[in-house]
Design goal:
Length: 456
């Protein structure tokens, strides 16, 4: 296939390719990324910029090759600092020599072999790394191919556990509102009922038990609501599933870790399993390797994904305790009946091992704290803007919440003019930059968030 110009590519893209949560044909023109390196996305020649902005970036444009359109070449290639880490995943930035080498090395051995009846070092090493770094008690690892699938597996584990113990009636899930757990059926059923398009799926989705969204600060009345819901539904509940400390795509809300202890105690008291979805929060993002550590709580089942492979390849994992695995193994059907074709993919597993070793081999907490204080400084200016309802920062996550729905196109264009890639949604403009983002680039990201808040 001959190389396509950006215009040809965009035309074919619009006609044939679905994008996340997009219509067909596409209505908004995506930017064409040609390559990425460090914290920068390099756009293809002639790739459109939302809002038609072709002016070079403002003062203090990012330096380095192709940082902004060169003089006399206003539509030339330009680079954007990625404020999104490609949806929480590229924690070490792009084109990282260590991750590249891990992929190349594994590529020379094998990209994939089936996992049924076969095993290999990358998967085994990865499982051991995950067990060692995760909260005490999580011992068994199911390697899945995406976050949503890892949640499906978590739910299957919980339902099967109770079935094995002779309590098949325990098959509902409890969660709090404002969550996001993925786009396949079980995860969708525990996504926020309002943001998660539940109305479209009335009668199709499993009907789960919902508590109110968790307040930011600890509130005893809310804790009591959690306890009494769990007690009341104990006979039909297989598990409670929540995102610990940070609710991501459901609304970028933070809550007191103390609620996790409330859930742990209530689940133990009433024979309900506890699942933490750490797909967004895992691998240091909140200032702890896993958000569960903020409360010193071990869940029965934990999902990880997103940053697992440093943003290189799709892979996720579901970890569980010996109790859950033993329970399943004592059942009439003593196996976990799940086995994706690409389970344990060696290429993804090798990169995941390298990414985890890279993370643990550095003072990652210092980097996350540095980003936290950079975002606090840089985003404080947003508090005074008209239309801004709240500004919050936790770990390497910065959020500006508006009092109205974001004008996506205007907000994105404003960020791009600052030389930064952001992807706002609903009433939220947010960033979770790669941990390798330097201070000057971080300040620029914060300026872009403020600009997007001003113009969105
Ligand atoms: C992104 C996300 C998922 C879904 O992961 P995919 O890899 O997109 O399927 C599930 N839970 C949480 C908390 C997430 O942030």
């Amino acid at each position: 296939m001959p190389e396509l110009t950006a215009a040809e590519l965009l035309e074919l893209d619009r006609r044939h390719v679905w994008h996340p949560y997009g219509p067909m044909p596409g209505r908004q023109e995506p930017l064409v990324v040609e390559s990425a390196s460090g914290v920068r996305l390099r756009l293809a020649d002639g790739s459109g910029v939302p809002g038609g902005g072709k002016e070079p970036s403002g003062p203090g444009a990012p330096s380095g090759p192709g940082a902004a359109a060169g003089p006399g070449d206003p539509a030339g290639p330009r680079e954007l600092i990625d404020g999104m880490s490609s949806w929480w995943s590229a924690i070490h930035g792009y084109n990282h020599p260590v991750l590249n080498e891990a992929a190349r090395e594994q590529l020379g051995r094998m990209s994939h072999v089936m996992f049924g009846g076969l095993t290999h070092e990358p998967a085994v090493r990865l499982a051991k790394l995950l067990v060692d770094m995760s909260p005490e008690g999580l011992e068994h690892v199911f390697l899945a191919d995406s976050g949503s699938v890892s949640v499906e597996v978590a739910v299957k584990m919980c339902l099967q556990y109770w079935r094995s113990l002779g309590r098949p009636g325990k098959q509902r899930l409890l969660t709090w509102r404002g969550g996001y757990h993925g786009d396949t059926w079980q995860p969708m059923s525990v996504c926020d009922p309002e943001g998660g398009m539940h109305d479209l799926w009335t009668g199709v989705l499993h009907r789960q038990v919902f508590a109110d969204p968790p307040p930011a600060e600890y509130d005893e009345a809310y804790a009591e609501q959690l306890r009494s819901l769990i007690e009341r539904h104990a006979d039909e509940l297989a598990a409670v599933i929540v995102e610990p400390v940070v609710q991501g795509a459901g609304g970028m809300r933070f809550h007191s870790p103390a609620y996790l202890r409330v859930l742990r105690e209530a689940c133990d008291a009433h024979d309900v399993l506890l699942v933490f979805d750490e797909i967004a929060t895992g691998f240091g993002r909140t200032g702890a390797l896993f958000a569960a550590e903020h409360a010193a709580v071990t869940p029965d089942v934990m999902c990880v994904g997103k940053a697992l492979t440093g943003g290189y390849l799709t892979m996720a994992a579901t970890l569980c305790t010996a109790r859950v695995a033993d329970g399943i193994s004592r059942g009439e059907v003593p196996v976990l009946a799940h086995g994706p074709t690409f389970m344990g993919n060696p290429l993804a597993a090798a990169v995941a091992c390298a990414s985890i070793e890279l993370l643990l081999g550095q003072d990652w907490l210092a980097e996350v704290k540095r980003i936290e204080s950079g975002l606090r400084d840089g985003l404080s200016a947003a508090s005074d803007l008209p239309g801004v309802k709240d500004v919050r920062v936790l770990g390497a996550i910065g959020v500006v919440q508006l009092d109205h729905a974001v004008d996506m196109e205007a907000a994105t264009a404003a960020a791009v003019r600052e030389g930064v890639w952001l992807r706002p949604f609903r009433d939220l403009i947010y960033t979770m930059p790669p941990y390798v983002t330097g201070d000057a680039d971080l300040a620029r990201i914060a300026r872009a968030v403020c600009a997007a808040a001003r113009e969105g």
